[in-house]
Design brief:
Helix content: 25-40%
InterPro entries: P-loop_NTPase, RecA_ATP-bd, XRCC2
Organism: Platanthera guangdongensis
Oligomer: single chain
Largest sheet: 6 strands, mixed
Domain RecA family profile: 1-243
Order of helices and strands: HEHEEEHEEHEHEEHHE
Number of domains: 1
Number of strands: 10
CATH superfamily: P-loop containing nucleotide triphosphate hydrolases
Number of helices: 7
Protein name: RecA family profile 1 domain-containing protein
């Protein structure tokens, strides 16, 4: 994906991934302007996490772990997730059979040819999707409530089982900034203005994420749109903005 992006958008600056601490217990923020492939990076990370390392003798190189994807800007496309996952599965099957073409020869003695689409393992696809948990929030209060439900580092599946999370993905963590800022102004009808300030909201989000990490050391990946120039590192933190 990175190689393709470099060809299509040579001006796009990609972070030095060998220096990014992508491991359980850490928080990685990906910043950049709109349409700089931040969500795509998060999607690729999610797919790599939910894929198994190996399935029926075919190597996929995944982690076979659960992912919680919190969508704050409501732009997530489940069909894009399905297409990326499907292509990864078919590509692995094609590599296992020594070809990346449209047709794969299964039995040379009988000249049996099948398409890569026929090699798409529905059971594998379903197993992967069961490890992907999608959550859409429409306000900061919903976002905070969602984080509170994840304090043990687990999430409830459709079968009612508690699933241990490995990666928590937050797409567009600053999506509600302007809405929250507008809500800070008291109206004529509301003179008893007692709402959380923007600073308090941010602190609350950080506190809830830290509570989750204290109980369960998972990897947190968050994207944020850069509105006013490149991100400036604070408190000695390393940031790799996408330009």
């Amino acid at each position: 994906m990175f190689a393709r992006m470099e060809l299509e958008r040579p001006a796009l600056f990609l972070p030095p991934l060998h220096r990014v601490p992508i491991r359980a217990g850490n928080v990685v923020e990906i910043t950049g302007p709109s349409s700089s492939a931040k969500s795509e990076i998060l999607l690729q990370a999610a797919v790599n996490c939910i894929l198994p390392k190996e399935w029926n003798g075919v190597h996929f190189g995944g982690l076979e772990r659960a992912v919680a994807f919190i969508d704050l800007d409501c732009r997530f496309d489940v069909l894009r997730l399905y297409d990326v996952l499907k292509l990864r599965i078919m590509s692995a099957h094609g590599s296992a059979h020594g070809t990346h073409g449209d047709l794969i020869e299964i039995c040379p003695t009988k000249s049996l040819m099948v398409s890569q689409a026929d090699l798409l393992d529905d059971d594998l696809l379903l197993s992967c999707m069961k490890r992907f948990f999608y959550i859409r929030c429409y306000s900061s209060s919903e976002f905070l409530s969602t984080l509170k439900t994840m304090h043990p580092g687990y999430i409830s599946s459709s079968e009612g089982l508690a699933v241990k999370l490995y990666i928590l993905i937050i797409d567009s963590i600053g999506a509600f900034h302007w809405n929250d800022r507008a809500c800070q102004l008291p109206t004529k009808e509301d003179r008893t203005w007692k709402k959380l300030s923007l600073e308090k909201l941010t602190e609350s989000v950080v506190q809830e994420i830290n509570k989750i990490r204290e109980v369960q050391p998972l990897l947190v990946l968050a994207s944020k749109v850069t509105l006013f120039g490149a991100a400036v590192p604070t408190n000695g933190a390393q940031r790799f903005p996408l330009r």
